[in-house]
Write a structure and sequence with these properties.
This protein has 724 residues and is an alpha/beta fold. The strands form four sheets. A five-stranded mixed β-sheet has the order 6-5-4-7-8, sandwiched between helices. It is built from 29 helices and 15 strands.
């Protein structure tokens, strides 16, 4: 890309984001040099003017869009020039196009196309007649058409000639830039989405019955409803149309092209109406469908990404010896003892539930494993038999201080059968792997969840219906952001977790694990330079996000980048102590005047970050773990009654409400209207994923497995058979 074009893009992005062009230019340069978003955000604040991850990601994405637009522009110019169609005026129009839609509108009349009715009419020599009629000077179109009747050209009659001329006018009008822009705007602002049941699908498609006779303005249709209707259409149960009132559209178009009341104008009117119905409306409807789908998908991806971020940053229990339990009825409960680092120590199986119900043997096994391995926490998966197993464990006479925690096991079964799990535990079956995953997820949700395909974790809306490439990019960004925000313990992290560290990736992550297995724990960050294929650039990008606790250099346990170690050592020397003393003693840190250390490369933002890290080196940004318990007398939907107040955990947040697990194997829905006593526009203003709440049961529909809940202080209580 030329420097001139890069500067133009940077100015445009800066205006869109409300930042300075120099900030965008510096960010673009760092990105082009291979720097990651977390690295730029954390360690290059002076260069970017302290842009955050959201802004840097926006620069990256917008720059990619503009470069793709440039590639398409070059391809169009090359095509026009090759076919001898490129005039100075056309070149200027192509170069001046600001969007892909505008660019394609300019190119549309010149684009190679299949034979159309208009091209056939042109081949028959009818273009001069079309131009004559379109001028609308008051001529008699029938008389003018007589001169174009030519049986050899398959123009048998005057009407054949007029029909061909109208085909040419219709196509020209449908490809007119101003007409397309006008219709595009009309569809966007006045369009209506109409959903109808497909013929013969009424009985089979009952789950879409809400949309059998549905219509609403496109501009107001929420994303979840659009995606629901699109799913119904894709499954063959619904038919959808995205159009404005036809009369309004035709009035707009005829006002643009019809300039008189004579016979020639009547021909133009007929052509424009035909062009709208046959060409322009279907074309713009396809565009608008794409726009509506894209906006709905972006919204759905945003919902999923926000939920996924909160899930990844859920409070960790921390490194404690844990007894993990993957519950089951007939197949029994698989037990796995893990040490404080999550290493498997032992495993067994018990059968405390029917049909076996070997209670004494099961209790003896649990107590034995707790005693042998010093487990102080029991992590129980919340799937099938989860509540029953939890309650049975609580009934045992366990050692004082043993904590029992129900753990969300969504995705654990996917992980247990995955290639990653087979690589990690090749000698164990899926039940053992599943139990290990449950225990590790309690100890460190982030470290375990990165091993699971995000789409297998139900924290979004319609995530399987959106563009999977865009979804993956968004979720990868979230994982990378979270992993680098928290930091990774170099000597215990799995290769999967290391993969997401800035500058690494799968290959280097595997090499780090190989090096660790062969040479033992890393003693310093500097030792990373001995890892195969890990060059200076990868070290620069990754080192600050990797932690070594209990290493020789205390800064290796912090987020201070190795490139700034000498600066911290100078601070310590100036204060008359070692770096370790500077970390331990707040009074020594208070003596440091950071502006003394500012220079061309290191400014106040970086110096302030360094001082924060010295105060709490390697601090985990995630909130502290809080134990949670369900109501002990409520275990199934049959135990629920309207008006009950129950503890629950928010498991999913969508634009229309939040789902809450109250311990009955079926999440309830708190509709957005029931989230608070005041109006709430964005549900995330008041709720977070995995938040502990107290809800009121509003209604229970056992047949449809629906539970309506409320967070209001005094919600309206409805009977179980109430609608909605």
């Amino acid at each position: 890309m030329s420097a001139e074009l890069q500067e133009k893009h940077c100015k445009r992005i800066a205006a869109e984001l409300g930042v300075r062009p120099a900030q965008v230019a510096a960010t673009a340069k760092l990105l082009d040099e291979g720097a990651s978003v977390p690295f730029i955000s954390r360690y290059r604040k002076e260069a970017t003017g302290s842009l955050d991850e959201v802004e840097i990601t926006a620069v990256r994405n917008r720059l990619k869009q503009l470069r793709e637009l440039d590639e398409r522009r070059e391809a169009i110019l090359a095509s026009l020039e090759e076919r001898g169609l490129l005039t100075d005026e056309l070149r200027a129009a192509v170069l001046g196009a600001e969007t892909l839609t505008e660019l394609e509108d300019i190119y549309l009349p010149y684009r190679p196309k299949r034979r159309t009715r208009a091209t056939i009419a042109r081949e028959r020599g009818l273009e001069p007649l079309a131009e004559l009629i379109f001028q609308q000077t008051g001529i008699d179109p029938g008389e003018a058409a007589e001169g174009f009747v030519d049986p050899e050209q398959e123009v048998e009659t005057v009407e054949d000639a007029l029909a061909g001329a109208r085909d040419i006018i219709a196509e020209n009008a449908s490809e007119n830039r101003r007409a397309r822009e006008s219709m595009r705007e009309l569809f966007r602002t006045r369009g209506v989405i109409r959903s109808r049941v497909a013929r013969g699908k009424k009985a089979e498609g009952l789950k879409y019955s809400d949309y059998f006779e549905w219509e609403e303005p496109l501009a107001k249709a929420p994303s979840h409803r659009v995606l629901a209707m699109r799913r119904g259409e894709n499954e063959g149960f619904l038919t959808l149309r995205f159009q404005p009132d036809e009369a309004e559209a035709l009035d707009t178009l005829t006002g643009m092209f019809v300039r008189g009341t004579g016979g020639d104008s009547a021909q133009v009117r007929l052509a424009v109406e035909d062009g709208y119905k046959r060409l322009l409306a279907p074309s713009i409807e396809t565009e608008i469908r794409g726009e509506v789908r894209e906006l709905a998908e972006l919204d759905a991806i945003s919902v999923f990404a926000n939920n996924f971020r909160e899930l990844l940053l859920a409070p960790p229990l921390g490194g404690k010896p844990t007894l993990a339990v993957d519950p089951g009825f007939r197949t029994g409960c698989k037990l796995c003892c893990l040490d404080a680092q999550g290493k498997l120590l032992a495993h067994d199986a018990i059968f405390p539930h029917p049909p076996q119900q070997w209670l004494e043997a099961a209790a003896e096994t649990v107590k034995k494993l707790l005693a042998e391995h010093g487990s102080r926490v029991i992590a129980v998966g919340n799937g099938t038999a989860g509540r029953e197993t939890e309650q049975w464990l609580r009934s045992l006479d366990l050692p004082a201080g043993v904590q029992i925690v129900l753990v969300d096991e969504a995705g654990a079964s996917v992980y247990s059968a995955s290639e990653a799990a087979r690589e990690e535990f090749p000698d164990h079956d899926v039940t053992v792997r599943g139990a290990i995953s449950i225990g590790r997820r309690l100890m460190d949700p982030l470290a375990e969840l990165v091993k699971i395909e995000p789409r297998s974790i139900g924290v979004g809306q319609y995530q399987h219906d959106v563009d999977q490439k865009n979804l993956k990019q968004s979720l990868d960004d979230i994982v990378i952001s979270c992993v680098n925000r928290v930091g990774v313990e170099l000597n215990t992290a799995s290769s999967r977790l290391l993969t997401y560290v800035s500058g690494l990736g799968p290959r280097l992550a595997n090499e780090i694990v190989k090096f660790r297995d062969k040479n033992g724990p890393f003693s310093s960050r500097e030792q990373l330079n001995e890892v195969a294929y890990l060059g200076p650039k990868a070290f620069e990008q990754a080192a600050g996000f990797l932690r070594i606790h209990d290493g020789a250099n205390p800064l290796d346990a912090s987020a201070v980048h190795p490139e700034r170690y000498s600066l911290v050592e100078r601070m310590a020397a100036d204060t008359g102590c070692a770096v370790a003393g500077l970390i331990r003693d707040e009074t020594l840190r208070a003596k440091i005047k950071i502006d003394r250390y500012a220079g061309d490369e290191v400014g106040l933002p970086t110096l302030e970050d360094i001082m924060t890290e010295l105060a709490r080196p390697g601090r985990d940004p995630r909130p502290a773990f809080e134990p949670f318990s369900y109501a002990t007398d409520v275990n199934s939907m049959n135990d629920l009654e309207p008006g009950m107040r129950l503890p629950g955990i928010v498991t999913n947040i969508t634009n229309f409400g939040a789902f809450v697990d109250i311990g009955v194997h079926q999440d309830g829905l708190v509709h957005i209207s029931q989230v608070a006593d005041k109006f709430v526009k964005d549900i995330r203003e008041v709720l977070k994923l995995r938040q502990q709440v107290r809800v009121t049961v509003v209604s229970v529909d056992t047949a449809r497995k629906r539970i309506a809940l409320s967070l209001k202080k005094a919600p309206e209580i409805r009977p179980a058979n109430a609608e909605g």
